Structures are given as structure tokens and as C-alpha cells.
Amino acid sequence: MTVLVRSSCLSGLDELAAGLGLQLPLLLRRFGLPPEAATDPDLPVSYQAFINLLEHCAQAGRCPDLGLRLAQRQGIGVLGPIAVLLRHAATVGEALALASRYLFVHSPALPLQIDPVPGRAHEMDVLFALDGAALTPRPQVISLSLGIICHSLRALTDGQAQPVQVSLPHLPVAAPGSYRQAYGCAVVFGASAAAVRLASADLALVLSEHDPQIKALALGYLEQLAGSAHTPVSSQVRGLLRGLLGSGSTGHEELARALSMHPRTLQRRLHSEGTTFARLLDEVRRSQFEALIAMPGGPGLTQIAHILGYAEASVLTRSCQRWFGVAPSRLKKPLLPGGSAGGQGEREAQEVQEVQEVQQEQGAGTTASHGG
After folding, report:
1. What is the pTM of this model?
2. pLDDT tens for each residue of 285-295
3. What is the DSSP letter of 312?
4. CATH superfamily of the domain spanning 4-204
């Protein structure tokens, strides 16, 4: 099974690669990564392919501290919605606990563990490991990951929390001084685990951006992600469309924002489920139309068109012909509630409306229109 990570892990690599004389688009293809991964931060990509790409760029570009440089460019922002949650946590300790709980959103391969240092009660280790995720960790991705942890601690506390020590499970592949400069603390090489050590007292530091309301919103969103992890995106889109028809907010981009996705990400995920946004919108409109047209004494055709989000009734007419082969007026029952016929004047007005709709539809031909 391929272990995935959000393509935001590539953020900043294009500029670094260009500065090293490397062409990232060509390298993405070489390592089996889609070219849009460089611009779409929400695209799930192979974590191992990213690890291998990073190592290759460091070697081919003769830049052994590439992971350290990339960490400086990415920082906490690479975590996307998780970063919002962490910034508005109450304390450093809560932020680390939330990170440990929700890092699966960035990648299910990112366990984060906070342990006391044996024999040193005043210090804690933030442990990072990829070994248990069917991945082959390499020096560059470990340097990158620990760099992001160090940067995040400083960013969350306005520099109050400072790492005491960084432990790397490999020998230095760059000048040892470059590690110390990037991490801002002592570095131990060849350690038993990758870890960032900080003072236990720092866990109680209050975060300057703490906002309970924003934290609650971020928590709700991430919990929704966890709960809908196995719900098809097409089902989520159908549910949103049913509630938003007629509101003017049923465009592809509006729905992508409602799902906290990039529009291209939504398009790809729907394609992988064998459908498209336009097809789902059409299906929901047809289903809603069938329910509305069958209501005794229900809304008129102009009202139905507005309920379904059509710009004009003539657009509904064309959609109805495509669905059923007839104009909508021929499907609407002329009976009022209880089965009694309406007054003569009402029936005549209905007939005039039907003739006008058929004439509009014949005049419009097959010209495409908004929402059809």
C-alpha cells in the first residue's frame, strides 16, 4: 500500500531546485509524481517518492543541506489546516498533543510522540519516526521534518520556546555547523531516534494567537475530515448541492471551498469516483425537479427554475427535454389539492404559459446556457 502525504511537502522546492540548476517538472515525472503536485497543496502523493526526490535533488544539486533549507521555507504553514489549529491552541503542550492527534491529515505516516527524557525530568523529547510506516527514511527528509518542528515551536511562541537539542539518527551529510545554525541548538548525530528536545516548562507557555472560537472551528473541520475519511466525495457534493440549490452558491469553486479543497483536487477526486461536478449537479436538479413537479398545488415552473438555481425558466425547459423528452409544462398536473380542477381563467393562463415556454424553447434551439 502506498503511503501518502499532502503535496504541500513540495512547497518551496521549485525555487530551491531552480537555484541548483535542476528542473523540478522533469524530476517530478521521473519519480512518478504528477506535475500539478508543485502547485496544488492538497494533492495526495507518494511519500516515498517525495523522500527519494528530495535525496536526489540534494545529490544532483550538490546541496547536502537541502532539507534544512527547505524547512526554513516551509515552516508550520506546510501543515495546512492543522497549522490553524496549532496556532490557536492554549499552550505549547496542547499544541503538541493536537499535532500528535491530527497529523494524519497531512500524512498517516507521521507519528509524533512526546516523552520525558529518562533521568532528566525538566526536559521532554518530541520524537519523530517514519520507520513504522513502510517507508525508507533518508537524511534529507529527517532534517526537513525536525527543522519544521523547531520552526513551529518558535513561531507558535514568538521565540519563547527554544529547542535544547536536536538528535539525528544518521551521521552528518552536510557541515555540522549548518545543522546547528538551522536548528539553533546543539545537535547529536547517530542517535537512536530523531527528536527535538525542549524544556518541560515550555509546555506551559501560552500561545499569543490563542483564540478558543477559531480553535473550535478548526477542530470541527478536522473532526469532519476524520469522520468523512471513508465517505465518497461525490456523496458529500450531492449533500451540499441539495442544500445550496437556488442560493447562487452551487458553482464548482464554491463547492470546493465548502469542502476545503482546491477546485482541481475536487475535480480529480470526482473523476476517480467515475463522475463529474456537472453530472452531479444535473442529477440533483433532476431529482429535485421530480419531487417539486409532483407536489399537488406546488410551485410554478418559474419558481421551480429559481429553486433549482437556473437563470431562466427556458433553461429548465431545455433540461427537462433532455431528461424526459418533453417540456416541463407537459409533466405538471393541472389539478389543485384534492383533485379538483382549477378555475377556467387559471387553466387558460396555464395553457398560455405552456405555449410561450414551447416557443421559447424552439427559438433557443440547442444553444448552451448558464446552468443547463
Report:
1. 0.64
2. 998 888 888 87
3. S
4. H-NOX domain (3.90.1520.10)
